[in-house]
Amino acid sequence: MNFDIQDIEKPSRNSPLTITYRPVEDLTPDPRNARTHPKRQIEQLKSAIASFGFTNPILIDEGDALIAGHGRLRAARDI
């Protein structure tokens, strides 16, 4: 798969981001995610989410593919 930086669309000021609350059961981790999250890190995330809520949201694209937040998703599922 070839990637060309010219193919990236620049965000439009007329298309704001939207926030949608979704059940964690509806979100599917990307199996190609290269990052791993040790149990200790997941425990820290669980503690932070329980104390402060989601201060950094899980990001998905328009096709519901997880972009960022694989560790937060694991932690949220464990809470």
TrEMBL record:
It comes from the Bacteria. This is ParB-like nuclease domain-containing protein. InterPro entries: ParB/Sulfiredoxin_sf, ParB_N. It holds the Pfam family ParB_N. Residues 23-77 form the ParB-like N-terminal domain.
